[in-house]
Amino acid sequence: MDIKNYLKDKKELVDSFLESYFASPLTPKTLNDSMAYSLSAGGKRIRPVLCLAAYEACAKDGNAKTEDIVPYASSLEFIHTYSLIHDDLPAMDNDDLRRGKPTNHKVFGEGMAILAGDGLLTEAFYMLSNNRQSAAGLHPEAVLKVIREIATASGIHGMIGGQAQDLLSEDAEPDEETLAFIHRHKTAALLTASVRSGGMLAGCGDEQLFRLTAYGENIGLAFQVIDDILDVEGETEVLGKPKGSDEKKKKMTYPKLYGIERSREKAKELIDGAIEALNIFDEKAEPLRAIARYMIERKS
């Protein structure tokens, strides 16, 4: 399949929803502008796209449309964007550049950047719980499970826990157990939740959910390993952020612990494992397989 066109089409679907969400500006306007600035700064929308692709893979009704779950999928982009805004703050990673543009706090100030992140996180759960399920034909119990899933993955048991350990591990001697904890929680948790949420909204069975979980965990870890490699080998202009920032901040990374070549091998093993996990699915899961293959080739 043409994965580039698939990703482009799904990204446009999400982008269109995000633009419409801010069509009526919130008050105060500066808060609205700060949130919209980071949401519209670019990005692959990989988390919502994974949610949409998993929904397609598991949909039993031939009339099921991915458009029906775009608000749920887009909530994942709100959470991801909030995490980036806060990650870039002086008290965290202290970055000046994100996706080739000045970071939020550089444009709007630290206080407004914090509030924009807080607003995006809270608004994500408003979106998830805003009673759209009846119009989309979704079961309320499935929506409740998705809310719990995303809350777990984005909070202290997932992304926040990983980010905290990442912060605590700066300048520490790298070790396998700590590195695995950081990557599983900081990055893989929300990516896995994205895939699982799409399956849950489609009413997938237990075996399908188990396989989607394995797929999500594998691509989530691979995503971070590739990120670590790109920080060493990528170019600032392509990455949209300074090359070598992990080393500068003395972060615990895969290349630092295993070296570049073993890190590349690890990423390929994880991608292969992700594709293998989908062997019970038919051709409707081909976008998920193609996303996994595409991920290992990404440059940003």
List keywords for this structure.
single chain, 300 residues, mainly alpha, Farnesyl Diphosphate Synthase, two-stranded antiparallel sheet, 2 strands, globular
Describe this structure in words.
This protein is an all-alpha fold. Helix content is 70%, strand content 1%. The chain has 16 helices and two strands. The chain has a two-stranded antiparallel ribbon. The relative contact order is 0.13.
- Spans of at least 5 consecutive residues whose pLDDT stays below 50 are none
What is the strand content?
A: under 5%
N-to-C span: 22 Å
Question: Biggest sheet: strands, sense, closure?
Answer: 2 strands, antiparallel
CATH domain class name = Mainly Alpha
Radius of gyration equals 18 Å
CATH homologous superfamily label: Farnesyl Diphosphate Synthase
CATH overall fold name:
Farnesyl Diphosphate Synthase
Q: Give the overall form.
A: globular
The SSE order reads HHHHEEHHHHHHHHHHHH
Number of domains: 1
The beta-strand count equals 2
Give, in spatial order, the strands making up the sheet with the most strands.
Answer: 1-2
| Average predicted local confidence, pLDDT | 91
CATH architectural label: Orthogonal Bundle
DSSP helical segment count: 16
